């Protein structure tokens, strides 16, 4: 018996109506806030910005730690700079500025390159708890949310783009009876994500057995994936754009984002 919750996206998009109904006017194509970077690494927010422009965002802003303003101020003209720690990561004092910019936006992308810092951990935890809008999380931003009672699973309006290693740790801490294994067959992981997202508010994109997998609300789509190692930030950017443009169709938006990312 065929699994009705598993949809396979191969030669064309699963949801042509979503693909062709996106806003043509840039003013109606949504506003996205990108947050990320630290003194020793800031490629993730820059990569994300380039990707969201390519994906068709209306307007995007980027917030970076102020320790890197002299370095990247001219590289990303749209960047704003928030308080940072002495080591160059986001300080908890950046919360008010990030929340204010998030209220302007239709969605937020925590793009990554946050580094490992206790103040940044406090900042991101506070942001996730205070902000109620759409948040997509990728790269090392996920590392702050892999423990028990993770908002990646329990917070509404949250999507994550993660490799199987991070998914394995998330499952270990939040779903101990069903381990995620690198050796899993594609069908087994599809079944697990179907069960796990049924009745839970979270949405996820991951990659296994040469396929991108999107799951939300118990529905799962798979799409043959190209052989790329650095897909997570760019695909998270595409997912953010498509999702904020189709906020009531999370599963359809994430599946279409994968199609559009591969096509481009």
Question: How would you explain this protein's 3D organization?
Answer:
This protein is of the alpha/beta class. It has one domain (6-263): Ribokinase (UDP-N-acetylmuramoyl-L-alanine:D-glutamate ligase), CATH 3.40.1190.20. Helices cover 38% and strands 20% of the residues. The protein is built from ten helices and ten strands. The protein has helices at residues 16-20, 43-55, 69-72, 95-104, 118-130, 151-154, 164-174, 186-197, 232-245, 250-263; strands at 6-8, 31-36, 59-65, 79-82, 107-112, 134-138, 158-161, 203-208, 211-216, 219-224. A ten-stranded mixed β-sheet has the order 1-10-9-8-7-6-5-2-3-4, sandwiched between helices. α5 (118-130) links the parallel β5 (107-112) and β6 (134-138). The longest helix is centred in the C-terminal third of the chain and has 14 residues, at 232-245. The model has no long low-confidence stretch (mean pLDDT 94).
């Amino acid at each position: 018996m065929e699994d009705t919750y598993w949809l396979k996206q191969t030669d064309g998009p699963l949801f042509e109506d979503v693909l062709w109904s996106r806003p043509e006017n840039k003013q109606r194509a949504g506003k996205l806030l990108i947050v990320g970077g630290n003194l020793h690494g800031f490629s993730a927010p820059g990569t994300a910005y380039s990707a969201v422009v390519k994906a068709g965002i209306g307007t995007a802003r980027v917030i970076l730690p102020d320790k890197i303003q002299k370095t990247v101020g001219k590289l990303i003209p749209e960047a704003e700079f928030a308080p940072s720690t002495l080591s160059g990561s986001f300080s908890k004092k950046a919360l008010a500025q990030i929340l204010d910019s998030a209220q302007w936006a239709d969605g937020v992308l925590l793009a990554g390159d946050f580094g490992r810092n206790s103040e940044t951990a406090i900042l991101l935890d506070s942001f996730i708890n205070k902000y109620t809008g759409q948040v997509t999380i990728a790269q090392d931003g996920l590392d702050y949310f892999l423990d028990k009672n993770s908002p990646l699973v329990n917070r509404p309006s949250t999507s994550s783009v993660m490799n199987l290693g991070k998914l394995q740790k998330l499952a270990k801490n939040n779903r101990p009876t069903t381990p995620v294994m690198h050796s899993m067959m594609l069908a087994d992981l599809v079944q697990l994500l179907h069960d796990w997202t049924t009745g839970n508010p979270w949405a996820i994109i991951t990659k296994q057995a040469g396929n991108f997998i999107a799951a939300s609300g118990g529905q799962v789509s798979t799409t043959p994936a190209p052989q790329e190692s650095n897909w997570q930030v760019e695909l998270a950017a595409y997912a953010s754009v498509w999702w904020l443009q189709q906020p009531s169709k999370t599963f359809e938006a994430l599946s279409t984002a994968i199609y559009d990312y591969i096509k481009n």
